[in-house]
Amino acid sequence: MKYRNKNKAQNHLKNKQDPNYYYIHARVWINKGDKSFLGQGRIDLLELVDRFGSISEAARAMKMSYRHAWELVDSMNQQAPQPLVKKTTGGKGGGGTQLTPIGKTVLNLYKDAQEKIDTLLVELEKKLNNEFQKLTENS
């Protein structure tokens, strides 16, 4: 789970280190038809493209080949109603790659969905662990 709130992350990590704590995890996948559109790996790639302005730099940071990174970006661009990533051609500073406005919107919507799901899962974990604790105490 990736948290925007560091205290939540630290508390959750402490619980996960307890061998008697039950934790729930889930990953968000967005599919279009029978094809994967977005998952955490693709989101990480989009974030790095946004940070570096380069698919090759993003690929290097993720330890993946440029070709694979390009195929993922191309797949997302083909499936979206408008491209999420666009390349800019050279000029004085050379070319680059950047997220389009819809790319930034999709990135933020995904992060928001994952955060809401993670919050729900933590609540469910607490309920599950409380119920199991009661059972342990009563036996």
Question: Can you offer a commentary on this structure?
Answer:
- With 139 residues, the chain is mainly alpha-helical.
- It contains five helices and four strands; from the N terminus they run αββαααββα.
- The chain has a single domain, classed as Orthogonal Bundle (Arc Repressor Mutant, subunit A).
- The strands form two sheets. A two-stranded antiparallel sheet has the order 1-2. A two-stranded antiparallel ribbon has the order 3-4.
- β1 and β2 form a beta hairpin.
- The chain is elongated and about 70 Å long.
- Main beta sheet: strand number and arrangement? 2 strands, antiparallel
Strand content: 5-15%
Q: Supply the CATH architecture.
A: Orthogonal Bundle
C-alpha termini separation:
33 Å
Task: Give the total of beta strands.
Answer: 4
Spatial sequence of strands, sheet with the most strands: 1-2
* Mean pLDDT over the residues: 88
- Report the top-level CATH class: Mainly Alpha
Low-confidence runs? none
CATH topology: Arc Repressor Mutant, subunit A
How helical, in percent, are the residues? 55-70%
- Helix/strand-derived category reads mainly alpha
